[in-house]
Structure prediction request, 245 residues.
Amino acid sequence: MSAMRLCSPLLVCLAAALFSGAVISSPHMWTKLVLTHHWPNTFCSMEHCHPNISYWTLHGLWPDQGIDCNNSWHFNSSQIEDLLPDMEKSWPDLRRPLSAGFWKYEWQKHGTCAAKAATLNTQHKYFSKALELYHKVDLTSILRKFDIIPSEKYYTFSQVEGVIENFYGIKPKIQCAHSSKNADVQILGQIEICFDSDFNLLDCEKHFIMNTVSKAGWDDDRAINKASGFMVCDHDMPVYYPPLP
Ligand SMILES: *[C@@H]1O[C@H](CO)[C@@H](O)[C@H](O)[C@H]1NC(C)=O
Ligand SMILES: *[C@@H]1O[C@H](CO)[C@@H](O)[C@H](O)[C@H]1NC(C)=O
Ligand SMILES: *[C@@H]1O[C@H](CO)[C@@H](O)[C@H](O)[C@H]1NC(C)=O
Prediction:
């Protein structure tokens, strides 16, 4: 009997091979990190806070596999003491300024999963890498440099997406909120820039074969988006990039 025979139908065999391969190497290792930025003014219009910041701030650094990976690994701000001034500026809790609650939440939900990689396996490594990537991306300056500026005028979706794609050379995920006052306009809210496990830029839409086997990453993504009230922007609707009130 030939080996082919043992492995038929071919697709089942292929899936089994990939699946067992994944189990042998590392069961729940992530393959993509999502650096999520939000626009404080849009976030605060949904969350009833009072924005006084006119630059994109960090929402989080999310691996594509896992949520709450280690509930006994508690957030401890004294381990990131040297980072706190930058954290307060770049990763503020917009709802409760001066609180560490947002960082604690992000660490428990996402950081403990990112920490499966040796490069991110301490709180200091995780938060300092997020800040490093955030500064490297420097989204606010890049948008400004290419004339995407918070204002009362509207942009087309492809103007915003085009600047990001052309500059970084990858596809971002851009999310909008919907206006209660004007149903024909969407409000720029959240921009995700993705990285591979070596921290190289990556298309956010890139699917890895492992994800099509386990699906977990995409389901998690959707749950997060739903909870935050942002949706992937409509390609045909004008985009409002709101300035500070
Ligand atoms: C925004 O307001 C908070 C709380 O009032 C304050 O601590 C913070 O320094 C302000 N940020 C800026 C950029 O003005
Ligand atoms: C979870 O975190 C605790 C505290 O850092 C650590 O001792 C433990 O080994 C971790 N568990 C796993 C499964 O990584
Ligand atoms: C937090 O981290 C500091 C510095 O590493 C350590 O001394 C302290 O015991 C930790 N606190 C808790 C509650 O684990």
